[in-house]
Amino acid sequence: MTKKLTFSLLLSILSLGLLLSQQPDFITEKYFPDPDIRFNTPTLSIEEERFATYDEIIRWIEDSIAVHSYAQVEIIGTTPLGREVPVIYLSNGSSAGKIRIWMQGLLHGNEPAGGEALLYLANRILTTVKGSEFLDNMEIAILPVANVDGYIAMSRRSAGGYDLNRDQTKFADPVSKMIKKAFIDWQADIAFDFHEFQPTRREFSGIGTKGASTAYDVLFLPSGYLNIPEGLRKVSRDIFQREAELALDEHGYTHNFYFTADVSGDEMILNKGAQSPHSSSTSYALSNAISMLVETRGIGLGRTSFPRRTNSSYVVANSFLESALLHRDEIQDIVAGAREATIAATEEIAVLNEPLIYNTGVNFIDMSNGELITLDLKIRDAENLTPTLTRPRPEGYMLEGSCIREAEILSLLGLEVKQITKRKRYRVESFVIRKYEEAEAEWERINTVDATADLINQKKVFPKGSYYLDLHQKNANYAISVLEPESPNGFVSYRVTPTSAGDTLRVHRVVK
Ligand SMILES: [Zn+2]
Fold it and tell me: Are residues 229 and 323 in the same domain?
């Protein structure tokens, strides 16, 4: 006992040092005070200034979640460092007519508020009248600690060194595969991914005399990617985001669109939104689900404002469930319509897109005096894209027999990929690579490729064992997003499909 106490004391002193916040108290007090709520959650129920250990979280799930009959805790796999990854499935029985909602947190291990909020939400669903009403209308899957090894190390990355939110088209990390398989097998209608953002960044160091910090509690990231059916994109913004913004307003929390910043010379440009199939907001939507990524203001803050960060994540997550309840029939129609439209789709596919550019005001906090500054900044808006390269949607794709890794990834993404059992002639458009450039800098352990291709029409005989992927299926939008060689996050770009200038790609478009 004494030994244990001494150890935990030592741990808390060590953690305290590591968790010292980079934010001055006067800014926390002025803009980000904690709510007057007692949370029963793993980190907020411990007195010490540290985060709950993985073992404490597992024990908390056993004691506060698994004891309820409407909760089923399943282990979806084991990480490279041997830790089990639990998903909490909440259901009060029959699945008939219910919406399926997937929620995850801590895909980046140093963004703990999302995981904490989702555990709070799970407990509330199981112990309140409102929760029963949710479960009469929906089934909910909660993955509270997506990146277990990263959480234990308080690292953004996985044990394998990967950013798991840049790994959803190349699947270099086994944890990415484990999560995607659980998600695809469960066939969610809606998916939400909870993150935290870093408020004080070097890009903001030129603002004021001591630099500036992002002023918002919550940032929203719906996908603007044009290969996602429009109805799904619209409903994620117009229903889920809008109603969550109103809920945040009611609680006195501030919000804006998600952005990253680029500084060139004197100018700072903000990139709004996302169109990247390698990350969750777009990736989940490509399975024909409504999808959104949410970020609370947290990275680098240690335990500062942790109740507020947890509560603002919870307010958003709870609002999402309220929206699903309120608009249940409309949502079911839109999701079903998107699936049917994808299976029957004939319209062009968008391979490359340009964001809309305009100026808008964004709030920052001056770190020297705590004043709010509104800057008029240039925005590159990926929620408003215009295609710059389109192609007719093919009937399907033929992949040569050597495309083993491609076929594996496509199957993981829920696509049916068939190996032909005897040689067959297909009318195809083949890609002849015209330009092939490898990036000089390594990124996620690869040098990405920028390629362009010309199409040649031919009748080509494919031997037994070649793969045929028919595009008339629910998850077809994944295929069109990774198989065209120009796609920024596709198989050529990410070195899944090797090629070089002058080559004919081993992936072919099947045409009528
Ligand atoms: Zn993140």
Answer: yes
Closest alpha carbon to 138 in 290, 29, 243, 13: 290
SS3 category, 397: strand
> Rounded to whole angstroms, how far apart are CA atoms 117 and 112?
9
Residue 239 placed within a domain: yes
Q: How confident is the model at residue 21 (pLDDT cuts 50, 70, 90)?
A: low
Q: What is the pLDDT of residues 223-262, one digit of tens each?
A: 999 999 999 999 999 999 999 999 999 999 999 999 999 9
CA atoms within a 13 Å half-sphere pointing along the CA-CB vector of 71: 23
Task: Give the Cα separation of 192 and 290 in Å (integer).
Answer: 8
C-alpha 491 to ligand 1 mean position (Å): 23
How many domains is the chain partitioned into structurally? 2
Q: Which amino acid is at 480?
A: I
- From CA 43, how far away is CA 338, in angstroms rounded? 40
Q: Which pLDDT score is estimated for 114?
A: 98
CB-based contact 51:112 (threshold 8 Å): yes
Amino acid identity of residue 430, one-letter, is S
Whether 479 is covered by a domain: the verdict is yes
- What is the pLDDT at residue 288? 98
- Ligand 1 center–CA 414 separation, angstroms: 25
Residue 476: give the domain boundaries. Answer: 394-510
Query: How many angstroms does the Cα of residue 299 sit away from the middle of ligand 1?
Result: 9
Q: What are phi and psi of 467, to 5 degrees?
A: -100, 135
Q: What is the CATH number of the domain that holds 283?
A: 3.40.630.10
Query: Alpha-carbon distance 201 to 212, whole Å?
Result: 8
Q: Are residues 146 and 244 part of one domain?
A: yes
Pairing of strands 71-78, 84-90: antiparallel
User: pTM of this prediction?
Assistant: 0.95
Q: How far is the CA of 276 from the centre of ligand 1 (A)?
A: 14
Say how many Å lie between the CA of residue 196 and the centre of ligand 1. Answer: 6
Taking the CA atoms of 27, 29, 35 and 37 in sequence, report the sign of the dihedral they define.
positive
Considering the domain architecture, whether residues 431 and 317 belong to the same structural domain is answered as no
- Distance CA(457)–CA(508), nearest Å, equals 10
In a domain, 373, yes or no: no
Establish if 379 belongs to a structural domain. Answer: no
